[in-house]
Amino acid sequence: MKYISTRGKAPALNFEQVLLAGLASDGGLYVPESLPVFSKAEITDMAAMDYPELAQKIITPFVSDCIPSDDLAVIIKETYAEFRHGAVAPLVQLGSNQWVLELFHGPTLAFKDFALQLLGRLLDYVLEREHRKVVIMGATSGDTGSAAIEGCKRCKNIDIFILHPHGRVSDVQRRQMTTVQGSNIHNLAVEGNFDDCQSMVKASFIDKSFLPEDRSLVAVNSINWARIMAQIVYYFYAAVALGAPSRSVAFSVPTGNFGDIFAGYLASKMGLPIERLIIATNQNDVLHRVLTSGTYGRSTLEHSLSPSMDISVSSNFERLLFDLYQRDGAAIAKLMDDFENADITFSAEAMKGLKGLFSSARVDDEETCAQIAKTWAECEYLLDPHSAIGVKAAANAKLKPGTPVISLATAHPAKFPSAIEQAGVAQAPTLPLHLDDLFERTERFEVLANDLSSVQNFMAANLRA
Fold it and tell me: What is the C-alpha R_g of the chain?
């Protein structure tokens, strides 16, 4: 399988090259040249598979020219053996047609473990085979950093630098990053917001001259195709558990950067019967504004109770736009160039395609707390603030009668105790046993100015030989 850039000018790459490239050389994002499509019979058979078996079925077409089947099976089995629930991604019923897909049973209690624990092992496999060393640079609004560090801490061929907005992630999220020891691990607290961190990462991928010539830069943010690929799996896993392909399902996805819900879009293109994908946003509602106005524009970033969604530019939205504009790389390049200077408005045809599968909802902090309290009162189920936004959006969605709607529970409530407290829920969330001493562990991080050269100079000075 070959991968092409959304902006049309970068060379096509294979999976291994895309894994190590991150951003395309023309500034675009890599997507598959074509997608595998599963028949109804194949999807029916998926119901009998456990999570690792299904992951192998879904992922194989994307990597088969680079990773032998037996090696891939070992990588996948080792990845999901570290999850604390036998089902890996269990479904919990909240109402007659309301379900929650628990995606927080991985090592760092967030959905990003599904992709980043796998990504770390894929990188380790490729780098060992090629005797190469790389530098990972990533930005996090909370969960990506800890999952990336956990997934890559064992990799001797990687130096990892994770940027997070200083003072704008929860205490649990920060400590999950900053208490992991290792000479190859560097946490950088940038005196800015997530968008500032993300901009530095993108700029560094465009101009890598601050690094030695023998070190390439690898992305762990969802601009890396392997992250999106891994997340496709749990859409199939949840849907077949509730009767697909015999009936359609809907998904409500709390999202800011559009990576997680884009994986759902790809699942639908691969044959999964999805009636609706609901974009659930907090008050930083860039994606909701696109659906309601047709305009994509920046706004002032607000600090919220759901910090992982405090994003004003959705990086992965470009991947969807590529399809909505008939895979016209030149058109996407122009749109993204225009977006650098002003808000952009999408064509009527693009908006028709967008609204054919997607709807959206905006849920502010007050509504988030109300949903946490409501769900606890009705069924004694504790939601984290991000997951509460998904459940609220699902409850308000206009779907065909009888359609199961699955809300993605993207993080464990113990990661956000202040939000639970503000919701007035008496039940305080507790960390799982493997993290019960988290607040006793020593932290290690550097506070840096919101300045690209300061960050790049720090990275260059702290590479291992």
Answer: 21
Farthest-apart Cα atoms in the chain, separation: 61
Rounded distance between C-alpha atoms, residue 363 and residue 309, angstroms: 11
Compute the average pLDDT of residues 372-392: 97
Identify the CA nearest to 413 among candidates 105, 90, 96, 166: 105
Confidence category of residue 206, pLDDT binned at 50, 70, 90: confident
The answer to whether residue 400 is catalytic is: no
In this model, does residue 141 exceed pLDDT 90? no
Closest C-alpha among 107, 119, 105, 6 to residue 62:
119
Annotated active-site residue in 77, 112, 208, 334: 112
Q: How far apart are CA 170 and CA 147, in angstroms?
A: 15
**Could you identify the residue written with the tokens 């500034």?**
27
Q: Tell me which residue of 302, 107, 134 sits closest to 216, measured CA to CA.
A: 134
Q: What average pLDDT does this structure show over 348-376?
A: 97
Which residue segments constitute the domains of the chain, with CATH numbers given? 85-107+225-422 (3.40.50.1100)
- Chain center to CA of 321: 18
Distances (CA, A) of 413 to 179, 213, 362, 425: 20, 43, 20, 12
Contact between 136 and 152 (Cβ < 8 Å):
yes
Closest to 139 in 3D by CA, of 195, 192, 210, 185: 195
Q: How many C-beta atoms lie closer than 10 Å to residue 278's C-beta?
A: 26
Burial of residue 426, with CB atoms counted within 10 A of its CB: 0-12 exposed, 13-18 middle, 19 or more buried: exposed
Whether 414 contacts 146, CB under 8 Å: no
Q: Residue 382 has what pLDDT?
A: 97
pTM for the full model?
Answer: 0.93
